[in-house]
Design a protein that fits this description.
The structure is a single chain. By secondary structure, the chain is mainly α. The chain is 63% helix and 0% strand. The two termini are 35 Å apart. The N terminus is likely disordered.
Length: 209
């Protein structure tokens, strides 16, 4: 997957003047172009992005407070979209969440550029913190809501800490996508993980599936 092939989508609250989708697309694609040319993340100044996108610096600052916020939007545009949860059962929602992680893992593996950008992003505390707060943390909150709803509906044992349960579900997929780049990410892996963990965390008397 090439960053230039992704389709940016606007995220975050509006600032200043009404947003122009064409202008935002030009800015995000300007960042992608620089990354594909091998420009290190540390050298991606707002001035350089503005010059590449053919806009003024003020145009960028009306939409993003700085490089960190802009770069988070670029990464969100390059990633697969967030999952739409079925909302029918805890199991189904967990599978949707894990499938999203699997797709992100596949996207990172298929793009050397995206893989390198993630590595650079983690070396920048400010950008990583912005990405964590805007992308990772909300996904964790969503997963915890799914688990708590599952407890209320009798799909998950009431004595299980949702924080721990979340780690038990998400952990295996993260190991394969982050720590084991050579590990298989086959279709059906999300279902296999969820059902394996649920076998131990489901109430004994429950027959929910």
């Amino acid at each position: 997957m090439s960053l230039a092939d992704s389709r940016p989508r606007p995220v975050g609250p509006a600032r200043g003047r009404p947003r122009s989708e064409a202008v935002e697309r030009a800015i995000l694609e300007g960042v992608m172009k620089l990354l594909e040319e091998g420009v290190p993340l540390a050298e991606l100044s707002i001035e350089r992005v503005a010059r590449t996108a053919g806009v003024g610096k003020a145009t960028i600052y009306r939409r993003w407070s700085g490089k960190e916020e802009l770069f988070v939007d670029v990464m969100r545009a390059a990633e697969p979209p967030d999952p739409v949860l079925p909302g029918v059962s805890m199991r189904g929602d967990l599978i949707a969440l894990l499938e999203s992680l699997r797709q992100r893992g596949l996207a990172t593996r298929s793009s050397v550029i995206l893989h390198n950008v993630y590595a650079q992003m983690k070396s920048s505390p400010k950008i990583w913190a912005a990405y964590h707060a805007s992308v990772i943390a909300p996904r964790r909150v969503l997963a915890l809501e799914v688990l708590r709803r599952g407890q209320r509906g009798g799909e998950l044992r009431p004595d299980i800490d949702p924080e721990l349960a979340n780690d038990l579900f998400i952990g295996p997929m993260l190991v394969r996508t982050v720590m084991r780049p050579d590990a298989d990410l086959p279709e059906g892996l999300a279902e296999e993980i969820v059902d394996t963990v649920l076998a131990g965390l489901r109430p004994v008397s429950s027959t929910a599936s």
